[in-house]
Design brief:
The mean pLDDT is 87. The N and C termini lie far apart (51 Å). Helices cover 79% and strands 0% of the residues. The longest helix is centred in the first third of the chain and has 38 residues. The chain contains 11 helices and no strands. It is mostly helical.
Length: 276
């Protein structure tokens, strides 16, 4: 073995060790955070805490969070996917496409508090929705559009052009090619965009505080105000009047993590069923 080859193998081994160490570090930090939250929530996280509606329960907040997430995705996903298809399949690198991408990049860089102020002015006051789940979902759907559009467009770019050409050569129309060839091939990326959007919606507090409200009541319709788990967690740690407040805050955080994992898992299952 020559000296140059030996040096290259040593360099490869060193880089591999660094990447493995980085992976272990990331997993270690994640497991530490999860374990710390679960340990701090012991004694508070139980069935009555999840299903209760009084001071020691989070059921109304849990329902409000699910409403906000599902309605936001129902609004943003179709718009985001259709925009991505328009940019990637129809406009190419035209002037219109560059203008649209600039607008999307600008939307992605706007602070979330500005989305909250916009939603408060447009949906709550101008359209008369008031502080409600619908106002918050509409606001958050605008906020997650850049995430969905950019992720879906990158997924569409990975579909080989030969797939499109083969479909068109068999007599399929442009729409049929997109429906039966392009979208199924890009489905993993679309699922990823939905998962990222769910994480963004669940983690936001400022827009939700301004548009959804802080009411602890169980919402009966989309026009009712409510309090999401994130806002409830914020108020528990902000006030912390009673000694149990921090324990309930950690229990709420544990439930929030479980909700995100369940929604992501359900999204993947649905995508797998559709792709069969």
């Amino acid at each position: 073995m020559t000296g140059a080859r030996k040096k290259r193998r040593m360099a490869d081994a060193g880089l591999y060790a660094l990447m493995a160490a980085a992976m272990v570090l990331v997993l270690g930090v994640l497991l530490f955070i999860l374990a710390y939250i679960l340990l701090q929530s012991l004694g508070f996280l139980n069935l009555s805490f999840i299903t209760g509606s009084g001071r020691g329960g989070i059921f109304p907040m849990l329902v409000t969070t699910l409403y906000v997430v599902l309605v936001s995705l129902a609004i943003a996903l179709p718009i985001g996917i259709m925009t991505s298809l328009f940019l990637n399949e129809y406009t190419g690198n035209s002037r219109l496409a560059r203008l649209l991408r600039l607008a999307i990049e600008t939307l992605a860089g706007i602070p979330s508090i500005l989305y909250g102020l916009f939603g408060l002015l447009l949906f709550c006051r101008l359209l008369g929705f008031g502080q409600s789940i619908l106002s918050g979902a509409c606001t958050l759907s605008i906020m997650i559009l850049p995430v969905i559009i950019r992720t879906t467009e990158e997924s569409l770019k990975t579909v080989p052009d030969s797939f499109r050409e083969a479909s068109l050569s068999l007599g399929a129309t442009k729409f049929q090619t997109i429906r039966h060839v392009v979208l199924p091939s890009a489905l993993p990326g679309i699922v990823t965009s939905a998962i990222l959007a769910v994480g963004r919606v669940v983690g936001e507090s400022a827009p939700v505080l301004l548009t959804v409200g802080i009411t602890r009541n169980l919402p009966k319709s989309l026009f009712d105000s409510g309090r999401t788990l994130t806002i409830h967690l914020y108020y528990l740690t902000k006030e912390a009047i009673n000694p149990d407040d921090f324990g309930m805050a950690f229990a709420t955080a544990a439930v929030l993590i479980v909700v995100v994992v369940l929604i992501n898992t359900l999204t993947k299952i649905i995508a797998g069923t559709v792709n069969r």
